Amino acid sequence: MATILAIESSCDETSASVCVDGKILSNHIANQTVHEQYGGVVPELASRAHMQNIVPVVDVALKNANIDLSVVDAIAFTQAPGLIGSLLVGAQFAKSLALSLNKPLIAVHHMQAHVLANLIDDPKPEFPFLCLTVSGGHTQIVKASSPNELKVIGETIDDAAGEAFDKSAKLLGLPYPGGPLIDKYAQQGNPTAFKFAEPQIPELNFSFSGLKTSVLYFLQAKQKEDPEFINKHVNDLCASIQSTIINILMKKVKKAVQQTGITNVCIAGGVSANSGLRTTLTEWGEKNGWKTFIPQFQYCTDNAAMIAITAYYKYLQADFVDLSVSPTARANW
User: Fold this and answer.
1) What is the rounded CA–CA span in Å between residue 40 and residue 38?
2) 182-233, pLDDT tens digit by residue?
3) Residue 74 maps to which CATH number?
C-alpha cells in the first residue's frame, strides 16, 4: 500500500491531497482572493499567502482522508513550472516534512500532473491517449504513452488559451479572472455574431496573439461608432470570442488525431473547466468516433490531487529526489 501526501503551490492556490494506492481520499484547496483588486496574480502576495495557508491546508487534507501523518509513505510537491516564490514555499515545506519523517520525496512537473488528472476517476483513458492541456500559462497537445512517458507534440508559440480568455475579458471591461465570466456570458450569446482572426500556424502548434489583436481592433472600431457597443453586445461578444478560441484548439486536436491515429482524447488544465470546451470536445468526439475524457471541475484548476496521482505512479517506479532538489519557474519535460 502506498500512501502519498501531495502539495501544490505553483501559483495562487495552496492545495494538499492524500492518495492511497491511486485513489484520491482528499483534495483541499485554499484560494487567494487578494489578487482580484490588482487584475492579476501578484507574486509576492501569492507567496506570503502560501506561507499562511500551507500548514492548515495540509492538516485539513489529512483529516478529511482520515490519515495520520505517521502512515504516509512519501511526500510529493510541485517542482515546476510556476511562480518561483510560490513554488519555494511548497518545496521547502515538503522537503522539511520528508526529512523529519524520513520519507522519500517526489518532485512533480505541474503540466504532467494536469495530463494525469485524467487518471483520477473512472472511466480512465487507455494508453496511448492525447491530451489537450489548456491553462493561463500553457497550451499544449500531449501524447501519453504511459503514466511516465509523456511527450509534447504541439504547443503555443506565444500566448496561451487562458491568456486569450483573460485578456479578451479585460478588453470587454470584465473583472479578473475574466475567463470564467466569458464562459458565463457566452452561454446567453450567439457564437456566430462576430468573426475574429484564427491564426494559421503550421503543424500542431498554436498562436493566440493575433486573436487578441483582432479583438482589440474590432472593439476599438465599434466603440468609435457607439461607445455603448460592448454593453449592448457583451453576451454575443463573449460567445464569439469563446467560439473562436475553442475552434482554434479543436482543429489542432483533430489534426493530432489524424497524424497519430490515437482516438482516446482528453482535456486538462484550468481552461478545461470551460463549459463550451467541454461540450465541444464531447460533440467532436461523437462526430469523429473518438473516446473523450474530461476531469471533474475540481481536478481542472490547480490542485494537489493531480500532483498526488502523478506522484503515485512515480512512487511505483521509485522515482525519488534528494533534498538538494530545487524548484524552477520554467522547466522542459
Assistant:
1) 6
2) 999 999 999 999 999 998 898 999 999 999 999 999 999 999 999 999 999 9
3) 3.30.420.40
Helices (H), the chain: 43-65, 84-101, 110-116, 161-171, 179-186, 209-225, 229-260, 275-288, 304-316
Q: Quote the domain boundaries for residue 209.
A: 125-294
One domain, residues 98 and 197: no
Give the separation between CA 200 and CA 202, rounded to whole angstroms: 7
Does residue 332 surpass a pLDDT of 80? no
Q: Give CA–CA dist 304/29, Å, rounded.
A: 8
Look up cell 517526489; give the residue. 106
Cβ-based burial of 326 (10 A; exposed 0-12, middle 13-18, buried ≥19): middle
What pLDDT was estimated at residue 60? Answer: 98
Residue 264 contacts residue 293 (beta carbons within 8 Å): yes
Distance, CA of 274 to CA of 238 (rounded, Å):
13
As given in the structure block, the three cell numbers for residue 282 are: 464531447
pLDDT band at 46 (very low <50, low <70, confident <90, very high): confident
Alpha-carbon gap, residue 67 to 157, rounded angstroms? 44
Residue 321 within any structural domain of the chain? no
**Section 252-256 average pLDDT:** 98
Q: Note the pLDDT of residue 136.
A: 75
One-letter amino acid of 231: N
